[in-house]
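Support case: user asked for a sample of complex input and structure output to validate their parser. Sending the pair below.
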Amino acid sequence: MSNEATVHVEQGAVHEVLEHHDEHHHHETFITKYVFSQDHKMIAKQFLITGTIWAIIGGLMSVLFRIQLGYPDATFPFLEDIFGHWAKGGKIQPEFYYALVTMHGTILVFFVLTAGLSGTFANLLIPLQVGARDMASPMLNMLSYWFFFLASIVMFSSLFVETGPAAGGWTVYPPLSALGDASQGSKIGMDLWLVSMALFVVSSLLGGLNYISTILNMRTKGMTMTRLPLTIWAIFFTAILGVLSFPVLFSGFILLLFDRHLGTSFYLSEIVINGKILPNEGGSAILYQHLFWFLGHPEVYIIILPTMGLVSEVMSVNARKPIFGYMAMVGSLFAIAVLAFLVWAHHMFVTGLNPFLGSIFVLLTLLIAVPSAIKVFNWLTTLWRGNIRFTPAMLFAIGFVSMFISGGLTGIFLGNSTLDLHLHDTYFVIAHFHIVMGISAFLGMFAGVYHWFPKMYGRYLNSTLGYIHFWVTLVCAYVIFWPMHYEGFAGMPRRYYDYSSWESFKNFVELNKVISFAAMLSFGAQLMFVFNFFYSIFHGRKVTTKNPWHSATLEWTTPINPGHGNWPGEIPEVHRWAYDYGKDGKDYIDQTTPVGKDESGH
Amino acid sequence: MSELSKVQQKKIHPHKFTLWVALGSIIMMFAGLTSAYIVKRNQDGWQGFELPRLFWYSTFVILLSSVTVQMALRSFQEREMSRYRLMITITAGLGLLFITLQILGFMAFEAAGMKMIGRGSSPSYSFILAIGGLHAAHVLGGVIALLVMFIKAFSKRSRSYNSVPIEIVTTYWHFVDVLWIYLFIFFSWLN
Ligand code: HEM
Ligand SMILES: [Cu+2]
């Protein structure tokens, strides 16, 4: 009863749009349409564009610190013109360097590949692909974006405070991060970092709650869970991971704030700074690492799972074949999501972890290789003997699989604690996670952007620029990160400002130059993509048919530029799964087509 | 009405569902903190303590407020709007009283020589403040929600007989109540 009533109330606004569709009765001002919009499609665009701006900033930071790493002896006076005392004499100062790597990590991991990625595709695709007019709570959804926006403002402002932003690494381990006297980057910049991240956690919780609730409660008639496209399954597990792990990170931050400002000693014990003995006693820095990595490890899957979904979808559509092993794909997503909570201590093998406990974490960590391998196998078999259309989106999807394999294999090295004792905190780890997470996730995200851009803006991205973007990015990514494995084997530690004083790393001088050059080239290619993106929003080739990719999923049954409410008439009913490609001699059969009498089963 | 609501009829209301997931998320936060506490307790240098009397009173207050919030919900469903308004006012008042008692409790704790913050504080004691304070913040959130309900109940513009919002607040209120009982037993037992 009350249930029915509220759905009426809830849907009231939407119905109004529908009934008076032709007369444009629904008054939308610029503010409600583009700024405080509650339309999931507009919120998706807001996330995407904010994420893009962050990606440019975060990427630029990596170019700056690669200048230092590739050319440690050179000076670049123009840097001093721009950054003042942070680049005194045209040389990036150590404090600046640490601030750059820290902010690069924070921005890319959280602001781009978590909020930018999930925020964009969860918002865009959930209602469109499950057949709903909007999210379960459009209001919370809007708040989710605005909390992200606030977090962004705070983080951005921390770049301009006098002592600089946080500089203790993206994991902000105490005691360094807890003691303002310990470094420049542990002063006000660190507080702003924590405040920003707290807002960020709120944003992702609001978003995640809504995603889960919408997927479970708002599916159209006939859309059973096993008829959902894999994108939705992937987003579903991502949201669960976020909702269960972000709060733990939050509690870790609360205790860190206590230590910073209330003189408590949760993480601090027996510390001497500049010869001064601190009174703190009884705390443990390792405690923070547990709280951090309990989120931190699920977080890496929060980043990669959505892209796995996007890639599965793009790959099936462009291979004109059903995805291979749909249920195995769902099962492996589930297995990854469960295991993600049970492996966090593999980041802590060298913290004096009990070796027996360590061996359990080794086992659980290596177990993740199984569902990962199942997914890779299924992608490859989906490609096998397909009628592949090499659209830019498809190339990015294939590139994703290549990167994911390369990076997954090095994970198996690191997962063995005995090997990790040597490899921990070296460039090998940098290579591992940039390939398996950073680059893979970006390629997957690009696959999604190229594929769904027509749905978002009613226009296409330019394909020629897309092909150039793909090849330059792929080649540069391997040139940048592959050699880092060798550097890591040789013991080159991560997070150092200058390696030239070590005799043993002298032979990497030229290699570091090559890496830095490839990094700059790759950054240029991304700028070209950004140009393509904004240019195409206004001037791209127009989409003329509803379903340009001949895809079977629901989002392509909406008008080319869907209004708020998505479908002008009734929401279509679903009769089959999302992957009927090449069935009974037909190119594809979309989900709204009823099952024919003489149709073969699947 | 469209097929949409027909499908949804059988199911739990999406907003209620969202609340349940949110509660799961809050549980994870306190699970994180209390497991940190347990780990810490098993290490050297743990300092035991006795909870001040005041926390018994606050526990009684929050239990009582669960009763009143339930009565508010009942009144709403029976359309007894004046009793409804009275009950949510009492509940909010009890919520504020609970928070006040908690703060007094923390002060009594410090006054007994067990420093929670500042020089000479011990993490064993600081945990009480961090965890208890975070819980009190959640109660405050409930009070604010009740305040919103209160304003809604008086506004002429929206005469809504939709009970979902008050059901949601009631569930949340019982949740923070149970959460405190858990924490109270936890601190009394493992100290
Ligand atoms: C076969 C699967 C994988 C295994 C066995 C594995 C194992 C590991 C291990 C043991 C470490 C710790 C290395 C150290 O710090 O010494 C590590 C680091 C890392 N892994 Fe993986 N990994 C796997 C897949 C992934 C995936 C799929 C992602 C992301 C999508 C990922 C992201 C990361 C990140 C971000 C770090 C480093 C964090 C940091 O220290 O800053 N890994 N991995
Ligand atoms: Cu991990």
